Amino acid sequence: MSIFSLQLAARQYEVDFNGHLSNAAYYDWADHVRLEFLRRAGVVPETFMENKVGPVILEAQARYLRELRIGEHVTVTCEPTYGSGRTFTFLHRFIRGDDVLATELVKIMGMLDHSTRRLVADPHRILRALAAQPELLEPAGATASEQHE
C-alpha cells in the first residue's frame, strides 16, 4: 500500500493571531484525513455503530517543526501501525508545498466495545473485518504475510 494523503489549505478561521495554523486545526485535519483513510477502505461511521464498536483516541501528541500559514497548500498523510496489543497508532505528517515537513502528529488509539465499554483485544482484526477493502488499511510497504488473514 502507498501512504494515504489528502491536500488541504489553511483557511482564515483556522489560523491564530500569529497568522499560522492553530493548534486545534492540526488535530481537526488529522481527524479528517484519518476518517477519509477509513472511508476509502469502506469503514464508515455507520459501520462502527452497527457493530457496536468505535475508535477512541487514547493519546495525541504533535511536534511542530515549521509553521503553516494561511492559504498554504499542505499534504496531510495518514500512516497506521498495528501491534499485537489493544492499541494502534496513526502517524500524520503535515508537508508543505515546498516539501518541508511542518508537523508530525501521532495518535495512539484503541477500539472500544460499546457493550463492555472496554478496548477490544485485537483492533486490527476488527478494522479488517469491518472493511469492504481491508487491504487498504495496511501500512505502506506491508507484505501479504504481515497482514492479518
Shape: elongated
User: What value does the Rg take, in angstroms?
Assistant: 16 Å
The counted number of beta strands is: 6
Tell me the structural class: alpha+beta
Multimerization status: single chain
Mean pLDDT over all positions = 92
Task: Please summarize the sheet with the most strands.
Answer: 6 strands, antiparallel
Distance between the termini: 16 Å
Order of helices and strands: EHHEEEEEH
Number of alpha- plus pi-helical segments: 3
Percent in helix: 10-25%
Pfam family, one: 4HBT_2
Organism: Pseudonocardia yunnanensis
Keywords: Hydrolase
Enzyme class: hydrolase
Write the layout of secondary structure elements.
Elements (H helix, E strand, L loop, with lengths): L3 E6 L13 H18 L4 H6 L2 E12 L8 E10 L4 E10 L4 E13 L4 E2 L3 H8 L19
Antiparallel strand pairs: 1-3, 2-5, 3-4, 4-5, 5-6
Describe the structure.
This is Acyl-CoA thioesterase. It holds the Pfam family 4HBT_2. InterPro entries: 4-hydroxybenzoyl-CoA_TE, HotDog_dom_sf. It comes from Pseudonocardia yunnanensis. Its EC number is 3.1.2.-. By secondary structure, the chain is α+β, with helices and mostly antiparallel strands. About 20% of the residues lie in helices and about 35% in strands. The protein has helices at about 25-40, 45-50, 125-130, and strands at about 5-10, 55-65, 75-80, 85-95, 100-115, 120. Strands 1, 2, 3, 4, 5 and 6 form a 6-stranded antiparallel beta sheet that branches. The two termini are about 15 Å apart. The mean pLDDT is about 90.
